[in-house]
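Lab notes, practical 5.
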Amino acid sequence: MIIGKGLIASAFADQEEMLEDVVLFASGVSDSSCRDIEEFEREKQLVRSIYSAHKGKLFVYFSTISILDPSLQGSAYTEHKKGIERALMGLDNTLILRCPNIIGKGGNPKTLINYLAHCIRSDKGFEVWSNAHRNFLGMNDLKKITLALIERDKRGIRAIVHPYSYSISEIVIELEKLLRKKARFSVAEGGAHYVPETDVELMELFNELNINTSSGYLEHVLSTYLETK
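Output from the prediction step:
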């Protein structure tokens, strides 16, 4: 059972049969800048009602690695996600996936990659934080990892992150190359040089699933998903 209509939910649409005994909850607040209490409450209520209606099924919730980013502590978004995680960890049969920035076809225009690409295409100036780093995962890779964890009957909290993270300036450079256009941006002090850790089990899974673990991963996923015309 798939809950949601966005990028993640759409990617799993062809797996309905496999997910018959699973609730894949991909209908949460995805905009990290969100401060709308009503949106947060909507997600909380939906999580409660869906879990209660399907208690016998594995409940998979997509959370965020931003929870661990020192520069984002105390934000409305991360505090909301922490609350959802705490509630689910007190229940049976749950798998929480802390995800980095997901890159796929389309998706929320407010995601970092979509926002930066839009600014570059439209010749719009923007500001980047000098110390900020971000981690990325292609949608197909997240899908492969999620299905593998479900098949192995995993529970608890799993951080699904790539071994390489990138500064915002590095991200902009990759986008400039692919879009063949220079960005108009300024650099300001801010952000944290936070690089999430990957564990041995996750790296073994990456290798088993033939997921690219090189430093060129960002270029690889951008060239796969980014519309360059």
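Observations recorded by the TA: Strands lie at 2-3, 22-25, 58-64, 94-99, 101-103, 126-129, 133-138, 156-159, 165-167, 185-188. DSSP finds eight helices and ten strands in the chain.
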